[in-house]
Amino acid sequence: MTLIDVMPSINDLGITDNIDRGSQFTPELTEAIQLPASWADKVDVYYSSAMTPERDDLIRNTNYPESTEKLSNPDSAEEPNWTLATEVDDWSSIHSFKLELKDGVEWIEGENITINFSMEAPNASEVDQGVLDKTINPTERAAWNSFAIATDQGQPVEPARVGVYMDLDNSVQLTKLGEGGEHLQGAEFSLFNEDGQEIETGLTTNEDGIIVVEDLLLGSYKFVETLAPEGYQLDDTPIPFDIELAQQAQIEVSKENAYALGSVELTKEGEDGELLEGVEFELQDADGRTLQEKLLTDENGKLVIDHLKLQVTIS
């Protein structure tokens, strides 16, 4: 028995059909493969840095019928130079491995073998952004592994490929506050990427004054307020933040809104309806604190005060 596993890499090929497997990124092996303890003395394990190793070992003992096309090496095939685990200095450089049944060992019909190996995905900054895009079907952004096995005099067989894919796991939380520290519901924002494209619109703060956006591609972003809550001033100053990792702790940003300003016009009249000039008033807030004093009506009996915040009274 001979088994060859070709691990995923960009532009990799199937082992028996030499057809593009479609891998979109290249994960790295982190350690030697793990076999069941019962198989420790049954097989020899070899490793290679070749991404497209020659297939010759698979057909070394194969008897092909005259009418059957023989397994061939692709044009890009490399000499594998198989080595033992003790000779591997850098596991990330290994892209294929081979198992060979030791002399005198027989494969028992119906016996299964489980091979475990661990691989590490590349950093998000090292892959095409489409690999991380959840709007794309995972099968179209995966990395694909497959192996081929030949036993006795039989022809090599390659079972179905197995794929892994990368997903984003990041988020940003925006908290909207009033100048008094109150959490503001109903503020609306748009989200722009580093190219100035509006990628989200109508993002609205909830009852806790919060917006959460998840699974963003790497890059620089900014929130821009498009609608302020009632009673507060709109502030469209951008709120920037950066997504640097595919998987990272939640980013938290906040924005404070000033109260909306208004104006009031007071007209002072006498009992007979005459307009009264020179009547003095003071301006108080809702708690009775004096904000302005010695405010006088003009010759038309009017007193106009601009730039008022909410909840003030005149007495």
Would you mind describing this structure in some detail?
The structure is a single chain. This protein is an all-beta fold and 315 residues long. The chain has 3 domains: 1-166, no CATH class; 171-257, Immunoglobulins (Immunoglobulin-like, Sandwich), CATH 2.60.40.10; 262-314, Immunoglobulins (Immunoglobulin-like). The protein has no helices and 19 strands. The chain has strands at residues 2-6, 28-29, 43-48, 96-101, 119-120, 143-150, 162-164, 171-178, 188-193, 198-204, 210-214, 219-227, 239-243, 251-257, 262-267, 280-285, 290-296, 302-308, 312-314. The strands form 6 sheets. It has a 5-stranded antiparallel β-sheet, with no helix packed on it. The protein has a 4-stranded antiparallel β-sheet with strand order 10-9-12-13, with no helix packed on it. Strand 9 and strand 10 form a beta hairpin. The radius of gyration is 36 Å and the shape is rod-shaped. The model has no long low-confidence stretch (mean pLDDT 90).
Number of strands: 19
- What kind of sheet is the major sheet? 5 strands, antiparallel
What's the tally of helices? 0
Terminal-residue CA separation: 99 Å
Q: If you compute it from the alpha carbons, what radius of gyration comes out, rounded to the nearest whole angstrom?
A: 36 Å
Low-confidence stretches: none
Q: Based on CA inertia axes, which overall geometry fits?
A: rod-shaped
Overall tally of structural domains = 3
Main sheet: strand order: 3-4-1-6-7
Summarize the amount of helix as a percent range. under 10%
Mean pLDDT: 90
The secondary-structure element order is EEEEEEEEEEEEEEEEEEE
Oligomeric state of the chains?
A: single chain
In terms of DSSP E residues, the strand content is 25-35%
Structural class comes to mainly beta
